[in-house]
């Protein structure tokens, strides 16, 4: 029977099926969002039945909030400052450890001198917030 139908008529028969599949996909995705963000929804609207529009609005709000948090914590400037401060802290700890070990050997003295030079270079290169006086051996 379908073979005898014109293309226009076939489209009319297929359209409700395609539309139902589209709605099912939308509903499935909304249900997945609801399950993924269930804790977040319970925090905002405990014991309430959420409509699809509520789920979508709260998801958008949650994603915006997460995006803002990421921007604040993971900017390249912060990452660079974190690296620089970690580098300087590591240098200071290594120098501190080496300067208090007894007896001092030639390699210890060389390492301390090397770390002092590296720290002074780092203090000059990095921002003023990270600068501090180097430990003396």
TrEMBL record:
<keyword id="KW-0804">Transcription</keyword>
<dbReference type="GO" id="GO:0030154">
    <property type="term" value="P:cell differentiation"/>
</dbReference>
<dbReference type="InterPro" id="IPR011598">
    <property type="entry name" value="bHLH_dom"/>
</dbReference>
<dbReference type="GO" id="GO:0003677">
    <property type="term" value="F:DNA binding"/>
</dbReference>
<dbReference type="GO" id="GO:0048513">
    <property type="term" value="P:animal organ development"/>
</dbReference>
<dbReference type="GO" id="GO:0007399">
    <property type="term" value="P:nervous system development"/>
</dbReference>
<dbReference type="Pfam" id="PF00010">
    <property type="entry name" value="HLH"/>
</dbReference>
<dbReference type="GO" id="GO:0005634">
    <property type="term" value="C:nucleus"/>
</dbReference>
<feature type="domain" description="Orange">
    <location>
        <begin position="83"/>
        <end position="115"/>
    </location>
</feature>
<dbReference type="GO" id="GO:0097150">
    <property type="term" value="P:neuronal stem cell population maintenance"/>
</dbReference>
<keyword id="KW-0524">Neurogenesis</keyword>
<dbReference type="InterPro" id="IPR036638">
    <property type="entry name" value="HLH_DNA-bd_sf"/>
</dbReference>
<dbReference type="GO" id="GO:0046983">
    <property type="term" value="F:protein dimerization activity"/>
</dbReference>
<dbReference type="GO" id="GO:0006355">
    <property type="term" value="P:regulation of DNA-templated transcription"/>
</dbReference>
<dbReference type="InterPro" id="IPR050370">
    <property type="entry name" value="HES_HEY"/>
</dbReference>
<comment type="subunit">
    <text>Transcription repression requires formation of a complex with a corepressor protein of the Groucho/TLE family.</text>
</comment>
<comment type="function">
    <text>Transcriptional repressor of genes that require a bHLH protein for their transcription. Plays an important role as neurogenesis negative regulator.</text>
</comment>
<keyword id="KW-0238">DNA-binding</keyword>
<keyword id="KW-0805">Transcription regulation</keyword>
<dbReference type="GO" id="GO:0045596">
    <property type="term" value="P:negative regulation of cell differentiation"/>
</dbReference>
<dbReference type="InterPro" id="IPR003650">
    <property type="entry name" value="Orange_dom"/>
</dbReference>
<keyword id="KW-0678">Repressor</keyword>
<keyword id="KW-0221">Differentiation</keyword>
<protein>
    <recommendedName>
        <fullName>Transcription factor HES-5</fullName>
    </recommendedName>
</protein>
<keyword id="KW-0217">Developmental protein</keyword>
<feature type="domain" description="BHLH">
    <location>
        <begin position="10"/>
        <end position="66"/>
    </location>
</feature>
<keyword id="KW-0539">Nucleus</keyword>
């Amino acid at each position: 029977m379908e073979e005898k139908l014109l293309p226009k008529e076939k489209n009319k028969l297929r359209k409700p099926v395609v539309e139902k599949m589209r709605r099912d996909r939308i509903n499935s995705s909304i249900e997945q969002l609801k399950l993924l963000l269930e804790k977040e929804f319970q925090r905002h609207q405990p014991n309430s039945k959420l409509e699809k529009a509520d789920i979508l609005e709260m998801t958008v709000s949650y994603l915006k909030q997460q995006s803002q948090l990421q921007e604040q914590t993971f900017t390249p400037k912060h990452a660079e400052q974190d690296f620089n401060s970690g580098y300087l802290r590591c240098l200071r700890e290594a120098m501190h450890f080496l300067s208090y070990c007894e007896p001092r050997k030639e390699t210890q003295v060389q390492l301390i001198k090397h770390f002092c030079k590296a720290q002074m270079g780092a203090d000059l290169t990095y921002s003023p917030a990270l600068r501090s006086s180097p430990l003396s051996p």
